[in-house]
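input
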Amino acid sequence: MKRKIKFAPSLERADWLNLEQEIHALEEAGADMLHLDIMDRTYGETILFSPRIIPAIKQITNLPLDIHMYVSDPKVYFDEMFQCLNAHDYINLEMEAVQDLAKLMQLIREGGSIPAISIDIQTPVYMLEELVPYVDMVNVIIRSAGCRYQPIREHILEKIAQIRKLFLSQHKQFELEVDGSINFKDSVLLVEQGADILVLGTKVIFRKDLTYKESCQKLRSCLECR
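output
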């Protein structure tokens, strides 16, 4: 039986002036969760959503949130976030941006959310080895931000397969997410290597030629035919 692949549209690509309507449209289209990037320029060149938007989003949707934090000191936001998040929401820390990851993962688990790590395109898989017991989801960045679109390189597909093998070798249940300008063809290749969650942007969901529902249906069809 084929596993259910989760779709996580990135709210960075939504219409911010109509965010509530956008979220409801994504719900109706069949999104499984919402990906939310929080960035403070300590890792990357862009400032994105503030954590203070999280309670407002939680008031209007029951979809789980995948909160990807590109910040150097995420712990300062935890207490406020824990007040509105639940056991279905992910707090997803950028591996290269923080220290004491094992401790932070434990704090997230104790706070009642799912501890997750994002690993950048150039970071080797062995860096995850000591963190396997603490992590319930790994997000693999497959393309560097701002780079011109290129086909997925073979070593990225191998990296995804290696991460799944690493966790399975330690008998650890987890989810494997992929993120980085993913299109329909990419999605099939990534799922074949073991991806469970697809972070989706302008190349699948937020297109001008398809509605959100049509995009989700097309992607489901592509995955079912693989």
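quick obs: Residues 154-169 form the longest helix (16 residues).
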